[in-house]
Amino acid sequence: MNAAQQSAGNAVSRSALWFPLYAAVAIFAAEFCWIAGHRGLFLIDQSILFDGAWRVVQGQAQYRDFFSAFPPVAFLIQAFFFRLFGVTFSATVIAAAFLNFVATISVMYLVLRMLPRQKACAVAAGLLTAVWFQAPFGMLWFEQTAFAFNLVALTLIVQASGKDRASASAVRIVAGVLLGASVLSKQNAGIEFLPFALGLTVISDIRRPGRALRMAGHVLTGMLLTGGALVVWLWKDSSLTVFWRDYFMMATQIASDRSPSVLQLAQLLLVRIIAPRHMLALLALGLVQFSRKSPTETPNYLLTRGIAISLIVYQALFILHSYNEEENAVPYLGIIYGLALALLLERSGPWIDARIKVADRSAARVVVGLLATLVFGLVFIDGLANSWYRTVQKFDAQTRFTEFVNAPGLSRVLWGNPTKAAPPNIRPVFLDRRDFENLNEFLTASNANFFVFKDATMLYGLHHRISPQPWLYFSPGHGFRNDELPRVDAAVVESLQHNNVEIIIVEKETWVDFGLLDRMPQLLAFIARDFEKVREFGIYEAYRRKTLQAGSVHDLP
User: Fold this and answer.
1) Are strands 503-507 and 531-537 parallel, antiparallel or unpaired?
2) Could you write out the DSSP letters of every residue in 4-59?
3) How far apart are CA 480 and CA 230, in angstroms?
4) Mean pLDDT of all residues belonging to the chain
5) Which helix (H) or strand (E) holds 543?
6) Per-residue DSSP letter, 260
7) Which residues pair with 415 in a beta bridge?
């Protein structure tokens, strides 16, 4: 074996040693999300996707049988996991863990595809993705579903970058299909990514307009395929008109209510771009400019920087109007830092060689590596803490997760003590674990259809009872407009009667839309006329239908 063959063999051997590490990071991503996702309940948000997916399992079709401004794809994905693993809370965490696994693999691949020599940065980027992508929310969620489709589509776009063969065209079409699925997972998370996706599709061929347009056309073709499949489904099994109202009109109204002025948008966008969580990545990208090599001498330089900068701007734009915690809106910190620091390390070698004496070069490289490790470590610990302490679900570092929940479908969930039942800045109200468990015991013993007003609709699926009325989320703007409330009021009462609801659970404390029940006179009259209060479980009041046989519910635990 000659020297060249031996060198190549050693390189292959060294490369093979990294694969177990990549696999370990991907497994960690799934396992960490699984553990973090079972810490605490935040019923208002978690119930939305849970109940929507449960409705799909029941055979209900969105826009025909139930209404929501949230698009259908995340519901369909979660319904698939329900069918595989049962209708339990853990099935929503399994779905999230799977997306975290896929996102982590995609990020590591992207770093290696852009800068193959920076394997350590690929591992570090995977670790950041593991704690920042899906784990902050813990269970499957609309934004994270869209973020995942965006990321896999970006991976395919990069894979096909600069290629004009039929196989590359097919890959870009598939990427377009995924981008379409993203738009149907969460409107703003999908639509706002499209300009960046198309820009990154053509950036490598920007000086060849014909070829660039053809590549963009492939992506748009894939999106049209997704749109066509949607139209067929709406026409055959759902409703085009209700889709237009809920997906476009309702979402447009929400966006309008949250939109700042042009000047405010520019100012806020700039602030978000240079926010602390982006600062170090921007610094790394800036330092690249001081390297000795010209941009054209580094393979993939333009695309690498384009991806990192595009994702920083995208995240900043998304944070501006999402009204969510920032920790739930920075899923791409892993790929941003992975590419930024990998590019800096890739190009710092020539810079060090040009400015530092030979005897000091090794020490300089060690210092650069330690600084990169420190940066990755700080961002990793930040994500680890936010996911572990469930910041997005309104818990904090003082919360203790030590007791399992004794309720159907929740046996793996650790109760957060304390669990807030209303915004703490308005009034300090907490939900006790025993009250929640007693409520579930009451519902199990009743063995009857029930209606929850208004947040804890997860209970329908956990008890395998019919979701008894059409609105997924009782909040004006997310299922109906304020001026539609009288129609909603009447339709809810009609649905409860049609579905033979015998138990009504009213929450005395809620997170949003306080006093909504007082603005629904028909529902109030229906409860007062046909039901009587039989139990209280902390914030929950339980009513049973008066026409039931005496003792049938009074004797329940």
Assistant:
1) unpaired
2) HHHHHHHHHHHHHHHHHHHHHHHHHHHHHHHHHHTB---HHHHHHHHHHHHHHHHT
3) 22
4) 88
5) strand 540-545
6) P
7) 403
Q: What is the 8-class DSSP label of residue 261?
A: P
Q: Which range has the worst mean pLDDT, 198-207, 435-444, 516-525? A: 198-207
Q: Where are the alpha helices (H) located in 59-165, listed in sequence order?
A: 73-85, 89-114, 119-132, 142-159
Q: Alpha-carbon distance 175 to 177, whole Å? A: 5
Confidence grade of residue 291 (pLDDT, cut at 50, 70, 90):
low
Residue 455: what pLDDT? 92
The neighbouring-strand residues paired with 384 are none
Read off the pLDDT band of 298 (50, 70, 90).
low
Beta strands in 194-262 (DSSP E): none
Q: In this predicted structure, what is the pLDDT of residue 557? A: 43
Please determine, for residue 405, whether its predicted confidence score (pLDDT) is greater than 50. Answer: yes
Q: Nearest 5°: CA angle at 475, between 232 and 484? A: 75
pLDDT at 2: 56
User: What Rg, from alpha-carbon coordinates, does the chain have?
Assistant: 26
- Residues making up the chain, counted from first to last: 557
Output b/e per residue, 462-492; b: 16+ Cβ within 10 A.
Answer: bbebbbbbbbbbbbbbbbbeeeeeeebbebb
Q: What is the pLDDT of residue 555?
A: 43
In the beta sheet, which residues pair with residue 404? 414
Residues sharing a CB contact under 8 Å with residue 532, sequence separation 6 or more, in sequence order: 543, 544, 546
**pLDDT at residue 262, rounded to an integer:** 56
Measured in degrees and rounded to the nearest 5, phi and psi for residue 512 equal: -135, 165
What element of type H or E holds 531? strand 531-537
Euclidean distance between CA atoms 399 and 417, whole angstroms: 5
Q: Which residue has better confidence, 96 or 271? A: 96
Asked if residues 374 and 367 have their Cβ atoms less than 8 Å apart, the reply is no
Task: Calculate mean pLDDT across residues 449-472.
Answer: 96
**pLDDT at residue 107 in the model:** 98
pLDDT at 287: 79
Q: Count the neighbouring beta carbons within 10 Å of the beta carbon of residue 274.
A: 11
**Residue 71 backbone zone (phi > 0: left; psi -120 to 50: alpha; other: beta):** beta
Residue 135 three-state SS:
coil
- DSSP result, 407-469: STT-TTPEEEESEESS-TTT---EE-HHHHHHHHHHHHHH-S-EEEESS-THHHHHTT----S
Q: Which residues of 57-96 are buried (b: 16+ CB within 10 A; e: fewer)?
A: bbebbbbeebbbbbbbbbbbbbbebbeeeebbbbbbbbbb
pLDDT at 551 over 50: no
Q: Residue 60 in 3-state DSSP? A: coil
Model pLDDT, residue 263: 60
